[in-house]
Amino acid sequence: MGGLGGMFNDPQLFQKLAGNPKTAPLLADADFMAKLKRLQQNPNDIGQEIGDPRFLQVMSVLLGIDMNFGAPPPEAAASSSAAQEAEEDVPMPDARPAAPKKEPEPAPEPEPEDEEALEKKKAQEAADAEKKLGNDFYKKRDFDGAIEHYNKAWELHKDITYLNNLGAAKFEKGDLQGAIETCQKAVEEGRELRADFKAIAKAFARIGTAYEKLGELGQAKFQEGDWPAAVDAFTEMTKRAPEDPRGFSNRAAALIKLMAFPQAVQDCDEATKRDPKFIRAYMRKAQALVAMKEYNKALDVCTEASEHDDGTHAREIEQQQQKCLDAQFSARAGETEQQTMERIQNDPEIMSILQDPIMQTILQQAKSDPAALQEHMKNSQVRMKIQKLMAAGVIRMGR
């Protein structure tokens, strides 16, 4: 069931539902939206909601299939009903004399509108006039002018159409966060005002589009070298799709550029927690650990990546392992024999490897038969330990 629930993490979920006339009305249902957001957080809970016909309809739209199993086509049902009625005897009423025609009553005079209704009508007319001005500015791509008039329209009369237009103007201006906040307000106000579900669905669609654009913005800022802006954009990406590992991994890359290595390691862990096969996150974590001079931990991460890789990223993993080893060799360049021994004795992990009976046997065998070491390195766990001993200077091979 976890795979089935995974469809609710689709970044374009709300756009798809808003674009389908069968599911668009559901987005105005606060109870339904609460359940939908809960499923995004916990996809495995789909089993609890599978009996709700609304979720069957949502799944029908997301999967692109018709789930109205067993129901006869409307034309067939209507034809069957008509045929059945035709076969039954229809009672004929007794003929009665026609009733005398009544003179048409005069139409009642329209009641005068009360003062409140007149005020509301005037406010709406004024708001629509502001909206028209906003539309004129929008067409000229003068988004600041459009925003000013859409704001005035909303102040004059509470119709979320004005908020949707305001969100569109902010989106085109490039104020993506502002567009998201405005459209979220449109959704909340629309529910309070019992607005047309199509208007609420439009607000949801704009929110999704703005979040998608934020992800693209993060990549653009990263390419431009604007690392703080990239971090901000990728942070919004993690909010939009908290189960998508890419937002965390991308933010880690920007944090590495800012030399915020511990935070980058934490983001990489969040990414691999969501997808253990997301190899890029392992590579970025290893890169951050090397920068922190945590060489053995970086090698462990590379080994972990190999265990989850299907072979597609083997070369990339090997290159990162070599970078770890080279960095460790460079770090101890110029050490005296005495300094190397002191460092090894103060490294708990290296001492643990040296005290391992299996590794002691392998190292003893390698003294008399160096080729045996290469044979033992075919085992990934042994290879990792030997690489650490080489990087630490315990095993020297032509260096």
From TrEMBL:
Entry superkingdom: Eukaryota
Organism of origin: Aspergillus indologenus CBS 114.80
PANTHER family tied to this protein: STRESS-INDUCED-PHOSPHOPROTEIN 1, TPR REPEAT CONTAINING PROTEIN
Name the UniProt record assigns to this protein: TPR-like protein
Gene3D superfamilies noted in UniProt: 1.10.260.100, Tetratricopeptide repeat domain (1.25.40.10)
GO cellular component: cytoplasm
SUPFAM superfamilies: TPR-like (SSF48452)
Subunit structure: Part of a larger complex that includes HSP70, HSP90, and immunophilins.
Acidic residues biased stretches: 106-117
Region of interest: Disordered: 73-126
TPR repeats: 127-160, 211-244
Record key words, sorted: Cytoplasm, Repeat, TPR repeat
Localization terms from the record: Cytoplasm
